[in-house]
Amino acid sequence: MTSDSSNFDLVIVGVGGQGAVKVSDIIGKAAVSEGMNVRAAETHGMAQRGGSVVNYVRLGCDLGSLIPCGSAHGMLALEPVEAMRYIHDVAKDKIVVMNTSPIYPVTVTSGQCTYPDPQEIVARLEKDYRVVAFDAVALARQAGNMKTLNVVMLGAISSYLPIPEETLVECIRNMVPSNTIDTNLKAFRLGRETTRQ
Amino acid sequence: MEIGTYPIPEDSVRQFLAKTEQVIVIEELEPVIEDQCKVIARDVGFETEIFGKADGFLPRTGEFNVDICIEGIAKAFGIDSCECKPAKQDMELPVRPPAMCPGCSHRGTFHIMKKVFGEDAVFPSDIGCYTLGIQHGTVDTTLCMGASISVASGIYDAGEKKPICCTIGDSTFFHTGINSLMNAIYNKSDITVLILDNRTTAMTGHQPNPGMGKTATREPTVEVAFDKLCSAMGAEFVEVVDPYDMAATEDVLERAKAHEGVSVVIAKRACVISAAREGIRYTPFMVDTDLCKGCRKCLKFGCPAIEFDEVSKKASINSMCSGCGLCVEICTFNAIMEVKK
Fold first, then answer.
1. For residue A73, which phi and psi values (nearest 5 degrees)?
2. B285-338 placed in CATH 3.30.70.20
3. Which one is the CATH code of B10-77: 3.90.25, 3.10.50, 3.10.20, 3.40.720?
4. Residues of chain A with pLDDT under 50
5. pTM, to two decimals
6. Among B67, B84, B306, whose Cβ lies nearest the Cβ of A109?
7. Chain B interface test: which of A106, A117, A137 (most B C-beta within 10 Å)
């Protein structure tokens, strides 16, 4: 399973606490169980404190874990401004799956900076990329827990990953707290439906 | 070849250099391996050209990424690097620095410390979550682990007349703060040492430390008592306070500031992340919009749970509130109160 067709370099961005690292873990483990080589690089530590987070997951990759600028095959953005901040990592015309619900940094709430209109971000991204943007917070709520936002987003990007849906579902089952499995699986389904092709 | 050890594997490097005319060494920070390779090449009498940082092909500062490496390799070997980089997007984005968590006791401690010692005081600090206090103007120096106390006593010895209050976390204090504190006391510094005891090593992922009574494998063991330890080293002013109690904290810090010699204050309150993991829950707070005057004083407190609505010109508290209640004290108009169940 290391042929070129299954290579996929994914950039996952978000805000510390949204569960970006968890999504990287689930995708990575799912790919490994499919026999793919995986390289990944994650932002740790400071991430827990609400900072900007960028993770790289390289599926079917034998080399380094960092994705060269402008060559990623897709982006999973858990937060709109963070999508814009790291969009230069993604190759033109590739897929960007983005949550439109913002998390305001302290610099915004305290009035030092302003937050751009998320719809303006979507419009800018649509000029150069294939964009799927939706309010993932609403879907996470619908699934039963705001914290499943990351799994909603995982569901949405899953349509583009070279990993079978069942394998991802199995990994979610094994990797989320046992009392939240049903909620997370519902979140995954709701997310997946947004991009079902 | 990839080198992952130091000292470097000399035999392998020698064999590698023997069959190459030009080599570029790619390593972050100082050119340690680059220099070693040059020494080996010279000792053996190889003519191999070794490129890297000495000739400026790679930077000595910052983290490397793929593009920095491509550019360095291209320049060193005189080949064209592909200019396929996408244009940088030009939308102005708000910066998102990491912040102390909602409910973090350090935020309250720093607020009171600044109030008592004054904006003009000297605040040496250390390495941990509390380094994020730099955004609150309460971190003047961060050198290396344990240096807050030695920097504070050094500044005092250099003749500084402004009040000096240094901050250091519990695990950092055990790591290398004890020796610095002993030195400060023994050599008669007049400083305040504020130990921010959040009962864990939070920033690196909640590893146990000797103040917790848990071994590295989390088995119960003896707990090192900060107050007894500091007293044993000769500190004459040693007090423990709960930083969630802002009035008590202010009182202790006022007395610590007035004390001549080294005063030690231990601000003891479990990290909100550990507390949440242990199932401790407090009632969250809310803003009474009738009482809120929109003065933004609470926003300056820098808690990620406090927001401001530009339309209604009122503050509000979001779902991240952990119920520490510190902002209640900040509000002049008593507009912050517990959410009624």
1. -85, -10
2. yes
3. 3.90.25
4. 1-3
5. 0.81
6. B306
7. A106
- Reported as a single tens digit per residue, the pLDDT across B104-121 is 999 999 999 999 999 999
Between chain A and chain B, how many beta carbons pairs sit less than 8 Å apart? 104
Which ipTM score applies to this complex?
0.88
Average the pLDDT over B72-87 and give the result: 81
Q: Do B98 and A47 touch (CB under 8 A)?
A: yes
CATH number of A4-193: 3.40.920.10
| Tens digit of each residue's pLDDT (9 = 90 or more) over B279-291 | 999 999 999 999 9
Residues in A touching B90 (Cβ below 8 Å)? none
Return the structure tokens found at B271: 């990290």
Instruction: Kindly list the residues from chain A whose CB atom is less than 8 angstroms away from the CB atom of residue B296.
Output: 110-111
CB B103 within 8 A of CB B322: yes
Considering only alpha carbons, which residue of chain A is nearest residue B64? Answer: A66
A141 in B contact zone (CB under 8 Å): no
pLDDT at residue A17 in the model? 84
In chain A, the residue whose alpha carbon lies closest to the alpha carbon of B131 is A46
Q: Which two tokens stand for residue A62?
A: 């034998």
**Dist. CA B303–CA B320, nearest whole Å:** 9
Residue B328 to residues A55, A154, B243, B292: CA-CA distances in angstroms?
A: 37, 39, 14, 12
Residue B299 is nearest to which of A47, A88, A111, comparing CB atoms?
Answer: A111
Residues 6+ apart with CB under 8 A from B125: B131, B133, B134, B138, B139, B140, B141, B142, B148, B166, B167, B168
Min Cα–Cα distance to chain B from A11, Å: 14
Query: pLDDT tens, B151-162?
Result: 999 999 999 999
> Does the pLDDT of residue B201 top 80, yes or no?
yes
A106 neighbourhood in chain B, CB within 8 Å: 97, 99, 135, 302-304
Token pair of B85, please? 């980089």
- Residues in chain A closer than 8 A to B128 (CB atoms): none
Is the pLDDT assigned to residue B83 strictly greater than 90? no
**Nearest CA to CA, how far is A91 from chain B (Å)?**
8
At residue B148, the 3 state secondary structure works out as helix
Pick the CATH number of B105-277 from 3.30.230.80, 2.40.50.320, 3.40.50.970, 3.40.50.1000: 3.40.50.970
For residue A128, give the chain B residue with the closest CA.
B86
Q: What is the pLDDT of residue A2?
A: 39
pLDDT in tens, B248-289: 999 999 999 999 999 999 999 999 999 999 999 999 999 999
Strand partners, A52: A15
Q: Which of A67, A69, A109 sits opposite B307 (nearest CB)?
A: A109
The region that residue B62 occupies, defined by phi over 0 for left and psi between -120 and 50 for alpha, beta otherwise, is left
